[in-house]
Amino acid sequence: MYCKRVVGPEIPIVAVMVYFKMGPEFLISADTGGAMISLATQLSIIVPMMLLFQTFILEFGAMEFLGEFIGVIVRPLFKTSEICATSI
Questions:
Q1: pLDDT, position 4
Q2: Which is deepest, 25, 63, 76, 87, by most CB within 10 Å?
Q3: Which tens digits make up the pLDDT trace of 40-71?
């Protein structure tokens, strides 16, 4: 609990330092801070899209639909029922 209170407020400060390329070299180099900014940008686009598709896959039966096709492969390979294909 105490560690979160100490380390938590520094995270936005470090992000701003990396974005404006201020601070020590180990923080703003392309191998550390540059990779962090690149990864954060990609994840901020990918995660909301995956959450949207998760709704379609789970709520509208797409998982069961795919399970029927995958079950043909899974049943002889792992000796399970088609219902288990959606879990794998």
A1: 54
A2: 63
A3: 888 888 998 888 888 877 788 877 788 788 87
Residue 21 Ramachandran class (φ > 0 left, ψ -120 to 50 alpha, else beta): left
- Asked whether the beta carbons of 82 and 66 are under 8 A apart, the reply is no
* Angstrom distance (rounded) from CA 7 to CA 5: 6
Selected residue with higher pLDDT from 7 and 40:
40
> In whole angstroms, how far apart are CA 46 and each of 12, 38, 39, 40, 42?
21, 13, 10, 10, 6
Is 40 in contact with 60 (CB distance < 8 Å)? no
State the pTM of this model. Answer: 0.45
DSSP letter at 7?
A: H
The CA distance from 20 to 14, in Å, is: 10
